Amino acid sequence: MKIGILSRNSELYSTRRLREAGEQRGHQVMIIDTPRCFMNIASQRPTVHYKKIVLDDLDAIIPRIGASITFYGTSVVRQFEMGGVYSLNESVAISRSRDKLRSLQILSKHGIGLPVTGFANSTQMTGELIELVGGAPLVVKLLEGTQGIGVVLCETRKAAESVIEAFRGLQANFIVQQYIKEAGGADLRCFVIGDKVVAAMMRQGAEGEFRSNLHRGGTASLVKITPEERNTAVRSAKVMGLSVAGVDLLRAKSGPVVMEVNSSPGLEGIETSTGKDVAGLIIEHIEKNARPGRTRTRGKG
Q1: Across the chain, which distance is largest between two alpha carbons, in Å?
Q2: Which of 69, 72, 173, 234 is buried most deeply by CB count within 10 Å?
Q3: Cα separation of 288 and 179, whole Å?
Q4: Distance CA 40, CA 6 (A)
Q5: What is the distance between the alpha carbons of residues 221 and 100, in angstroms, rounded to a whole number?
Q6: Do the Cβ atoms of 117 and 178 come closer than 8 Å?
Q7: What is the rounded distance in angstroms from the CA atom of residue 87 to the CA atom of residue 296?
Q8: Each residue's pLDDT tens digit, 22-60
Q9: CA torsion, points 248, 165, 123, 150, in degrees to nearest 10?
């Protein structure tokens, strides 16, 4: 097979591992710098051009679309889909996962456990928002934030009011969420491929830090998850339409609650902490599922 990896940096751990895994299994793997693609949106033969070649012979693509280029990146993925190329994660599903509010609404619709979450536009609703999530302490999150950036723990009502006022003053979109104190600054990253959790790790925030992101000094370790946690992770990926996903869970008193469903989960932390060849499992999934024109969502929102 000929596989294209849509990635801006060929030296990133995840990109390197996917390339190695594909080549080890006898496939031809090409790294494609997504913003350097351009498209011929024709009714007869839609094509993607890269540098000076037409990418019309790929069997499958692996989108590794950064948050800063979501719009253009998903447009490129969609163009490949129109040409019959199998995409590991489809454009519609990637767009869903990148919109934090939309993803929470979809998960909520399917009865998946979530922290109590509030969203409002009017400045007159600040008090109601705070009460809705059970009061302080609470978490305020920018909808456009990634890797823990734009996530603020407000330990008092006054602090919450000040942060909400500041975000509104910047005309930023944000949500207010219940703070799950019993999680103790730790979360679970469940790596889902197809209909299975193939690896799971616990991420613990640095001392004094409630965010567990590895980019912010958190540590990762192997963890055994419960059947309920496994089921929640698989269902979350499925309702989002993702074949591969990193599902972040918190262990709350009420059971597992989903914080985020990531469409481009990193491989370094999960492979290092679990010792599993996750990249190889991704390539194996492509081998089993890649067929011309095999697009499930077919443009559904």
Answers
A1: 60
A2: 234
A3: 41
A4: 18
A5: 26
A6: yes
A7: 10
A8: 999 999 999 999 999 999 987 778 899 998 899 999 999
A9: -20
Q: What is the pLDDT of residues 103-132, one digit of tens each?
A: 999 999 999 999 999 998 777 788 999 999
Rg (CA), the chain: 20
Query: Side-chain half-sphere of 60: how many Cα atoms within 13 Å?
Result: 22
d(CA 61, CA 5): 6
Q: How does DSSP assign 196-219, residue by residue?
A: EEEEEEEEEPPTT-----GGGT-E
Strand partners, 256: 251
Q: How far apart are CA 177 and CA 232, in angstroms?
A: 19
Which residue type sits at 70?
T
Q: How far apart are CA 35 and CA 50, in angstroms?
A: 9
Domains and CATH numbers, the chain: 2-89 (3.40.50.20), 97-113+182-263 (3.30.470.20), 117-179 (3.30.1490.20)
Q: How confident is the model at residue 61 (pLDDT cuts 50, 70, 90)?
A: very high
Q: List the one residue out of 57, 80, 63 whose CA is nearest residue 6.
A: 63
pTM over 0.90: no
- Structural contact between residues 37 and 95, judged by C-beta atoms closer than 8 angstroms: no
| Token digits of residue 63 | 């989108």
